[in-house]
Specification:
By secondary structure, the chain is mostly helical. It contains twelve helices and two strands, in the order H-H-H-H-E-H-E-H-H-H-H-H-H-H. The chain has helices at 8-36, 44-62, 65-87, 94-113, 136-141, 146-164, 166-176, 178-183, 188-212, 226-236, 241-263, 276-288, and strands spanning 126-128, 143-145. A two-stranded antiparallel ribbon has the order 1-2. The radius of gyration is 20 Å and the shape is globular.
Length: 306
Amino acid sequence: MEDLGLWVIPLAILGGAIRVSTPFLFVSLGEVLTERSGRINLGLEGTLVFGAMSAYAIAYLTGSPWLGVLAAAAGGAFFGLIHGLICSLPRVNDIAVGIAMMILGMGLAFYFGKPYVQPVAPDLPSISFGWWSDIPQVKAALRVNVLFLIGAVLAFAMWWMFRATKVGLIIRVVGDSTDAARAMGLRPTLIRTLATAAGGAFAGVGGAYLSLFYPGSWNEGISSGQGLMAVALVIFARWNPIACFGAALLFGGAGALGPTLQSVGFSEGYYLFFAAPYVLTLGVLIATSSPTRAMTGAPGELSITK
């Protein structure tokens, strides 16, 4: 086997970034859609975990990982719909409801997922972009799951939707000003509820990736807070779907740092690098906070901007 030398480290980080970033990408795209409508959803961590469980269970029972992905999307949309309906009631706080939905989603996933901890479900397919090389490390690093490619396309499609379509304009108007939306004859409550449901579906798909590809199993600690970190990612990306794609790769690279160092024989203190995504999240929140400056690009109706 050909020795790659020091090149193995950036190559492994690249491959790890692609693998680890996919849940961040889907959850952040879902949260962008929700927040651009003027609502924040902190319950996506619970939606992510429930999506992982439901995808794994359906894939195991049916033998089809794509049916598992559809089940995860449906479950995520249901959680988002419930969140949206509750937040539509008078004097209801988005953040408090999100925390309650996060606990509910995780609790239901742990309860219904117990029979599926041991069984093995089929994996989602992947495409090998390293077919041109005979080096195993290159092939492993360039083995890309189909959902990552779909997520990349969706990021650019969502960016175009917000800039050039009527649907995107409606969501932006509702997110920036409820009064202006009503003056245009729109129904802000309905639009926010539908956007929250669609955002939940995205988060559910992110959970399906976790259980059906990487790490490719179902257990109660599968998420590690990725749903909550994705909210910080959205703020860091300034509610721009394309920027979310880049930020997801950045967070994914941070998450892959620890396993990469371990795989190349870095044995002293490598476990400290497993905290890199959480340190990065904290740094992003500190860097984007300011008592005197409004957040650039933030929807006007978003509760965290008021």
